[in-house]
Known about the structure:
Strand order of the largest sheet: 2-1-4-7
Largest sheet: 4 strands, antiparallel
CATH architecture of the largest domain: Sandwich
Signal peptide: 1-37
Bound molecules: calcium ion
Mean pLDDT: 83
Structural class: alpha+beta
Keywords: Signal
CATH superfamily of the largest domain: Crystallins
Amino acid sequence: MGSENKSTMKRRLVSGASMAGVAFVAMMGLSAGSAQAETTDVEVKAGTCASGYVCGWEDDGYGGDKWMSWNPSGVGANYEIDGWDGDNEITSIINNSGHGIKFYDQDGQAGNTLCVGNGVRINNLQDYAWNDRAESAKAVSRC
Length: 143
Ligand SMILES: [Ca+2]
Ligand SMILES: [Ca+2]
């Protein structure tokens, strides 16, 4: 009797495991679907940086708050990223300004720099060791 119960338990365990497998596959299918939706979403957000502007967002993938939206008047123009809403928060950038944009990791165009060429999109500044660092910027003729 004892061994029969054991084998019944075993069968139950095996069938439970295969059910879990089915659930896992279904979940994988779902996450693949949402990853696709996310890509479209990123493209939509990326499209919100108008020609002539350089834009900076709080999160990667042009998400979260858009702390920077600047239309530089020309080469040499300076921009001060807001100390409360922007400094040390920008994670993604699109430069549609028509100029190179030099970012500084301190206020008043001081400190270390990262130059982002015209037409460049950076999905995640972490890739350049520049996540949450930008505090000010300047338009330059080229990077
Ligand atoms: Ca950030
Ligand atoms: Ca600043």
